[in-house]
From TrEMBL:
Pfam families: RRM_1
Signal peptide region: none
GO MF terms held by the record: RNA binding
Higher taxonomy: Eukaryota, Metazoa, Spiralia, Lophotrochozoa, Platyhelminthes
SUPFAM superfamilies per the UniProt record, alphabetical: RNA-binding domain, RBD (SSF54928)
Repeat listed as a keyword: yes
Keywords: Cytoplasm, Repeat, RNA-binding
InterPro entries documented for this protein: HnRNP_R/Q_splicing_fac, Nucleotide-bd_a/b_plait_sf, RBD_domain_sf, RRM_dom
Name of the molecule in the record: Apobec 1 complementation factor
RRM domain residues: 102-180, 182-264, 277-352
Amino acid sequence: MPLSDVNQVTNSLNTLQLRELSNLSNSVQHINTLGKSNKHASMSSSSCVLGRQGNQNAAALSPEEGIVKLLERTKYTFVQENGQRRYGPPPNWRSEPPPRGCEVFIGKIPRDCFEDELIPVFEKIGPIYMFRLMMEFNGSNRGYGFCVYTNREDTKRAVQELDNYEIRKGKTIGVCFSVDNCRLFVGGIPKSKTRDEILTEMKRVTEGVKDVISYPSVNDKSKNRGFAFVEYESHKAAAMARRKLIPGRIQLWGQQIAVDWAEPEREVNEDIMSKVKILYVRNLMVSTTEESLREHFIRVAGGDANCVERVKKINDYAFIHFKEREQAAKCLQALNDTTLEGSKIEVTWAKPVDKNEVTARQQSTRASSKLMNELVLGKDLSINNSLNPAAMVAATGLLPPLDSTLPFILSSVGQQPLAPYFVMSIK
């Protein structure tokens, strides 16, 4: 799948990775099948050789010969599965796999560019734990892959130094952080179902369920909003569940459901987050006013009337701007999971957003699945589907929470993936 620029690489990051992983089979082939699979690929043509000559890492060797020499040098394992080739883990690796956050996504890879050209570039950053290149059946690559480093520091360096790297003369690749998504969005849930009932049902029909996140309706706290987020133990478990729950294959409580990947949160630099002085408060009563919120948070912060600079409430969530971070931290610790005016609220740090991403988020609204909107929103709109993210950012410098603008988080079925964006924590 070609990516026309680095922004598209970033926007396609999560969906490309998850779609490929969810389609993997268990069939494994050894390197001795590599030559057979590549005989019909165009990379053996003279134009391929000329292209490879534009890369100083690729000698005057065929891809097969180059990969053999690479493996002789590194002693890494190399296997081919349906849809991808996997290089790694390193020889004699005995410890646990690297933690989440150690993988980068690589896009805009020339279709006749393979591991013998790519790995020497990426290993300059640091030791590679695993490199995966997505493949077509004809032997060419699909234009993207993934590289897992042994630590997060090398991962950050790879993004900084290799994004827009010229892999061949006039050919640059895009490199950005990858996300290991373990959360599914499930829509079409009867609004009378409790969190425990949803959890029990999801455990009955899928394996590896870790948690269920369900929020009460804005107007009726005794009901849910018609959807939930289901957290799984691993990405593999989530991918298998998503495949099983594809619309038309299974019903829950006698109803058709909509299932897709939940939009993962993008990480914000720790230095930036350490300076945030704004709290995000969710699950408020619609009747709760900005003034009552101000008074409540001032009282908990210590009584200084000037400690809260601003309160912005929309529907059932709000942003509380503090003068000092210490005052905000005190309220966060004291008020999270407490009851305010009859509703149990959640309080987290608000995450800054890049305003340039708002346009992408608005565009993705138009691409949202009609099926999902019908199943989740229906005729009883308990969530505000008319919020303007651009106006929200202009007013607060922040984006609404995930479930407040539900259509924004839904990937289109069979269409292009959504652009990632900053959101507030939903846990």
